[in-house]
Design brief:
4-stranded parallel β-sheet, alpha/beta, single chain, Spore Coat Polysaccharide Biosynthesis Protein SpsA, Chain A, 166 residues, two-stranded antiparallel ribbon, 2 domains
Length: 166
């Protein structure tokens, strides 16, 4: 079973996409990674094909004509087989610790005792960090004021988003 499908829309991402894909590979056989080459004119498609060859059953390279980011996301949605779906932009990467914690939690939701005791959540919201590598700065986007930590909730349980929390 694939617990999470990661769709990575890529357009001329050859210079940086490997950091993204390498961070996703930590999930191993529990995840699928769909690299959507959206009509790139650089080596993006070749790099995607190389990952597919090196990680069969985990990575799939998809080549399509350029349609923009949303078109790439939709291509991934169409092909996804995972219990959950996540878009990761090709210039993003996941923290190994946070990723392992998320994957463990998703496995609980999709199998085992937790799946039997409660409805599977429709959405999982995680904090994230903007790393501005060129400037050497980072800003974490946290949602403590909106969602109870590590707790399933309904619309009636959530707080209000601040304008900066998108």
């Amino acid at each position: 079973m694939k617990y999470i499908t990661f769709t990575v829309p890529c357009y001329n991402s050859a210079a940086y996409m490997e950091r993204c894909v390498d961070s996703l590979l930590i999930g191993g056989e529990d995840v699928e990674i769909l690299l959507i080459d959206d009509g790139s004119t650089d080596r993006t498609g070749e790099i995607a094909d190389e990952y597919e060859r090196n990680y069969p059953g985990i990575v799939r390279a998809v080549h399509k004509s350029n349609g923009g980011h949303g078109s790439g996301v939709n291509a991934g949605l169409h092909l996804a087989t995972g219990c959950y779906f996540k878009v990761v932009d090709s210039d993003d990467w996941l923290s190994e610790d946070a990723y392992r914690r998320l994957l463990a939690r998703v496995k609980e939701f999709c199998t085992g005792a937790v799946a039997e005791l409660m409805d599977q959540p429709d959405l999982i919201v995680c904090n994230y960090t903007y790393n501005h590598l060129e400037e050497g700065t980072a800003h974490t986007m946290a949602y403590r004021n909106v969602f109870p930590a590590e707790t399933p909730c309904t619309w009636n349980d959530i707080g209000h988003f601040r304008p900066s929390q998108y």
